[in-house]
């Protein structure tokens, strides 16, 4: 039996419903479609129908409940020609639209609304609005003591919300997950903490080729981590880590111990833009080559980019690790210690992911040394990719096609010789 997270039926079903719905919207008003998120894992064979709330046109402030069923139409259902007109037909009369998604089109019927209310529930707050209002922030003691602040989540409630979000959102592996797209919906009779959660879509579910492959750095995992951090800290986080580090923190070096098999996966375009920006701002970037050995002919993305230091792993004697890719012919192949590196908890880890931060540390040390021994205006130039590359080349020993970084020789030279070497690298 498949594990619950391997079961992509719900995601597949949502994708086909969204595709079908958006195909039938032709008015161009920008309808919003909200999909109710299930807050438990389904492990049965039968999948429940999908519940949707959709805005009506033209004013978009009214909402209609829709239940979507797949392949269960009966002959009396009518084919949908204009979904906008169909939606408005019984609005406010306590009826819900049932849509039948079939291979040959979309069919509809009206049924009493599942919530039995006169008009359907309207969107209340987005998670984003709740965060801005301070619902997850540090408690306002005065309000707490007087018991007058029911909007604040206490730590247990925050954790419960995080777990609910985990169940329902990981279903979708959606890279554009954001607190702005998560709605808490419901009538006032529903207790505040148990309001159903909805995820809003303005177009179909984006297709993801490897949607269920968990991997460090997967954009869907990053956006989910950001959501959890926002709930925990009570603050909106602007997670464009590379741009943030370059612009706000003004860092000298960024190290990335991850890589994508090629540069066409989701999130890679944003990363490429951010790296170009970092490069232009004089930030050095180090990235892991990959540990695929002979099974890959090119380094991972972003290590393969020409302005990124692509780092290979070796042992303490400068021998190339068995998992390294073959060294490239026309590009630098910097190698440093990455085998059996002692990590947190005394566990030893191996691979280019561990060599990369060590290489970045060596570059940071060389940069500091340059600042201590050259005028600041000159030292700063080692933040240019070409200059740091030349310096690392100078300190490397070629071995089996790799440029093994070895700073020992450099520091055996007299101080004046070191200063002259640094200066000469800048003037060629
Ligand atoms: Zn419309």
Q: Secondary-structure map with pairings?
A:
Blueprint: H1 9-24, E1 33-36, E2 50-55, E3 63-70, E4 78-79, H2 83-88, E5 95-102, E6 105-112, E7 123-126, H3 127-133, H4 141-145, H5 155-169, E8 182-185, E9 197-201, H6 219-233, H7 241-247, E10 253-256, H8 268-280, E11 284-288, E12 309-314, E13 334-337, E14 341-342, E15 348-349, H9 352-373, H10 376-379, H11 385-394, E16 396-399, E17 402-405, H12 408-412, H13 415-426
Parallel strand pairs: 3-5, 10-11, 11-12, 12-13, 13-17
Antiparallel strand pairs: 1-2, 1-9, 2-3, 4-6, 5-6, 7-8, 8-9, 14-15, 16-17
Helix pairs in contact: 5-6, 7-8
This protein binds zinc ion.
Zinc ion is lined by residues 25, 27, 29, 31, 57, 84.
Can you describe this structure?
- It comes from Cephalotrichum gorgonifer.
- Keywords: Hydrolase, Protease, Serine protease.
- 32% of the residues lie in helices and 19% in strands.
- By secondary structure, the chain is an alpha/beta fold.
- The protein folds into 3 domains: 4-112, Trna Endonuclease, Chain: A, domain 1, CATH 3.40.1350; 123-203 and 215-232, no CATH class; 240-426, Peptidase S8/S53 domain (Rossmann fold, 3-Layer(aba) Sandwich).
- Strands 4-6-5-3-2-1-9-8-7 form a 9-stranded mixed beta sheet. A 6-stranded mixed beta sheet has the order 10-11-12-13-17-16, sandwiched between helices. It has a two-stranded antiparallel sheet with strand order 14-15.
- The longest helix has 22 residues, at 352-373.
- The model has no long low-confidence stretch (mean pLDDT 81).
- It binds zinc ion.
- Zinc ion binds next to loops.
């Amino acid at each position: 039996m498949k594990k619950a997270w391997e079961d992509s039926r719900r995601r597949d079903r949502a994708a086909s419903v969204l595709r079908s719905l958006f195909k039938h919207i032709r008015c161009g008003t920008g309808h919003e479609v909200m999909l109710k998120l299930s807050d438990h894992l389904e492990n049965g064979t039968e999948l429940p129908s999908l519940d949707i709330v959709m805005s009506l046109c033209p004013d978009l402030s009214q909402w209609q409940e829709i239940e979507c069923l797949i392949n269960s139409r009966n002959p009396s259902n009518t084919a949908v020609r204009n979904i906008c007109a169909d939606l408005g037909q019984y609005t406010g009369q306590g009826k819900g639209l049932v849509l039948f998604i079939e291979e040959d089109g979309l069919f509809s019927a009206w049924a009493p609304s599942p919530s039995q209310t006169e008009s359907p529930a309207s969107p209340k707050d987005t998670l984003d609005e709740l965060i801005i209002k301070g619902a997850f922030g540090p408690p306002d003691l005065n309000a707490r003591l007087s018991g007058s602040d029911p909007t604040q989540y206490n730590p247990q409630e925050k954790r419960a919300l995080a777990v609910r979000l985990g169940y329902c959102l990981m279903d979708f592996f959606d890279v554009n997950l954001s607190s702005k797209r998560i709605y808490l919906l419901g009538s006032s009779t529903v207790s505040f903490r148990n309001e159903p959660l909805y995820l809003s879509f303005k177009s179909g579910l984006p297709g993801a080729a490897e949607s269920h492959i968990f991997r460090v750095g997967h954009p869907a995992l990053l956006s989910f981590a950001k959501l959890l951090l926002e709930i925990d800290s009570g603050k909106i986080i602007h997670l464009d880590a590379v741009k943030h580090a370059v612009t706000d923190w003004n860092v000298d070096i960024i190290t990335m111990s991850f890589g994508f098999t090629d540069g066409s996966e989701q999130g890679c375009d944003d990363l490429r833009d951010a790296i170009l920006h970092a490069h232009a701002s004089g930030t050095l970037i180090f990235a892991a080559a990959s540990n695929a050995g002979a099974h890959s002919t090119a380094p991972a993305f972003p290590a393969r980019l020409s302005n990124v230091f692509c780092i290979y792993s070796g042992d303490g004697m400068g021998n190339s690790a068995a998992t390294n890719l073959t060294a490239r012919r026309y590009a630098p192949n910097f190698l440093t210690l990455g085998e059996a590196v002692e990590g947190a908890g005394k566990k030893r880890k191996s691979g280019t992911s561990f060599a990369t931060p060590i290489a970045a540390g060596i570059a940071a040390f060389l940069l500091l040394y340059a600042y201590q021994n050259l005028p600041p205006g000159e030292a700063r130039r080692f933040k240019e990719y070409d200059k740091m590359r030349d310096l690392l080349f100078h300190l490397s020993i070629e071995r089996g096609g790799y440029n093994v970084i070895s700073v020992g020789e450099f520091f055996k030279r007299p101080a004046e010789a070191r200063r002259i070497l640094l200066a000469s690298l800048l003037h060629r």
